[in-house]
Amino acid sequence: MNGLRLRACAKINLGLEVLRKRDDGYHDINSLFIAIDLHDEISIHPADGIEVVCEPAVTDRPDDNLAARAAHTLGSLPSAHGQGAKITVAKQIPTGGGLGGGSSDAATTLVGLNRFWNFPADDAALLAMASSLGSDVPFFLQPSVALVQGRGDVITTIDIDLPFVVVLVVPGIHVSTPWAYSTLGITGEQPATDLIRSLRQSIDDHQDMSHHFRNDFEPVVFAQHHVLSSIKQRFYEKGAAYASMSGSGSTMYGLYTDVDKARTAASAFGNMAVYICSPVNDSFVTSQ
């Protein structure tokens, strides 16, 4: 194979419930992950060793980024001994915004490099490697619409057509995920909402989605960054069916059922970075 190009898509969280703190220090969550067509592009070409280039760079040392860690993890398998590749990550997904760009790059690197090297790892091995790289990485092995539970490793794919146009607003505020979890003050546990049922009811019956979904990080993050609350309110003023923060922030999104309303909303956020996206459920591979 001469080369491979792949999409590493972003995601948003529709509902993000933090249920409990686990004995291993992680947290159990209950969330719907929706893959969207905002994506990084990853290209893989032959090389003697493993080289990963990120454009622009997202870490001080190239080997510290998740795509590089994924490549070296797969390359450490005995069945991949002696294999090499040059992997280039062209970044489009904003970093540190709750969109899962680094996790997606890692999963896409695993999938693409596994194909490029003629499948040294089976699906179970890929899942184990993805879980070792980060809580969100397993979802991106098969990005779609999914209920994500546990620490991110219990994934139930949902067969559903979403009628939404997604408008993202990226305010450029860094929110530390460990800090966000630490401020939740979780001492017990709370029950999980049936998010799949809520999603289907919201679509079928045109119900008010704001009563069905919540992001548990919003109160603590909004208290520190009031502009995020203002962005959420602006989405609703511009006719959003639902608006929320993705992950632990700081990206905000609005869901629209009308393309024209989505475009109007996208023009309402001044000089902030805005993206108009659609949900996706298709192949990683763009060409080879």
From TrEMBL:
InterPro entries: GHMP_kinase_C_dom (IPR013750), GHMP_kinase_C_sf (IPR036554), GHMP_kinase_N_dom (IPR006204), IspE (IPR004424), Ribosomal_Su5_D2-typ_SF (IPR020568), Ribsml_uS5_D2-typ_fold_subgr (IPR014721). Pathway: Isoprenoid biosynthesis; isopentenyl diphosphate biosynthesis via DXP pathway; isopentenyl diphosphate from 1-deoxy-D-xylulose 5-phosphate: step 3/6. Residues 208-269 form the GHMP kinase C-terminal domain. Keywords: ATP-binding, Isoprene biosynthesis, Kinase, Nucleotide-binding, Transferase. One of its GO terms (molecular function) is ATP binding. ATP binds at P94, T95, G96, G97, G98, L99, G100, G101, G102, S103, S104. The active site is at K11, D136. Its EC number is 2.7.1.148. GO terms for biological process: isopentenyl diphosphate biosynthetic process, methylerythritol 4-phosphate pathway; terpenoid biosynthetic process. Residues 65-141 form the GHMP kinase N-terminal domain. It catalyses: 4-CDP-2-C-methyl-D-erythritol + ATP = 4-CDP-2-C-methyl-D-erythritol 2-phosphate + ADP + H(+). It holds the Pfam family GHMP_kinases_C. It comes from the Bacteria. It is an enzyme of class 2 (transferase). SUPFAM superfamilies: GHMP Kinase, C-terminal domain (SSF55060), Ribosomal protein S5 domain 2-like (SSF54211). Belongs to the GHMP kinase family. IspE subfamily. Catalyzes the phosphorylation of the position 2 hydroxy group of 4-diphosphocytidyl-2C-methyl-D-erythritol. This is 4-diphosphocytidyl-2-C-methyl-D-erythritol kinase. It comes from Candidatus Kapaibacterium thiocyanatum. The gene is ispE.
